[in-house]
Design brief:
This is Lipoprotein. It holds the Pfam family DUF3192. Keywords: Signal. It comes from Endozoicomonas numazuensis. The protein has a domain at about 45-135: 2-Layer Sandwich (Beta-lactamase Inhibitory Protein, Chain:B, domain 1). β1 and β2 (about 90-100) form a beta hairpin. Strands 1-2-3-4 form a four-stranded antiparallel sheet. It has five helices and four strands, in the order ααααββββα. The chain starts with a helix and ends with a helix. With about 140 residues, it is of the alpha+beta class. The longest helix is centred in the N-terminal third of the chain and has 18 residues, at about 15-30.
Length: about 140
């Protein structure tokens, strides 16, 4: 008991020293896995910014489309589509090209709900957008 009551050079008893360690150790361990994102959604990284700019560019290109353009001209302008569909309906050859124009979930995956569909009938641009797609 005498040893525990002995004071160290700074005047703290051994019991108090052990008590402080016992208090701070669990708190330190509990907080060691925590992190705080001070920048919030503004600091999403270069990949996010690049994809955001690509989506914006694709929206601009879609806004300049004209009905009747050939599928080749649209592909040359828009690039490779994210998804494609092709089928026949009443002697018409229908192709749908999907281009990503918006981000819904930042998960690194592109889904059709993030894309604008371009509908071609007999290789000519007929219409675009989700409403037009639901009408065919």
């Amino acid at each position: 008991m005498k040893k525990l009551k002995q004071r160290n050079k700074k005047g703290i008893t051994m019991k108090k020293h052990l008590f402080l360690i016992a208090l701070t150790l669990p708190v330190t361990i509990a907080l060691s896995g925590c992190s705080i994102n001070i920048g919030g959604s503004k600091s999403k990284g270069p990949e996010y910014n690049q994809q955001h700019e690509t989506d914006k560019l694709q929206r601009e290109k879609v806004s300049r489309l004209n009905e009747g353009e050939s599928i080749e001209a649209v592909r040359n302008n828009m690039g490779i589509p994210d998804f494609t569909e092709s089928y026949s309906k009443k002697d018409k050859k229908i192709k749908v090209l999907f281009y990503r124009t918006q981000r819904i979930k930042a998960d690194g995956m592109t889904t059709k709900d993030e894309c604008t569909p371009l509908i071609f009938v007999n290789n000519q641009l007929d219409s675009w957008g989700s409403h037009a797609l639901s009408e065919i």
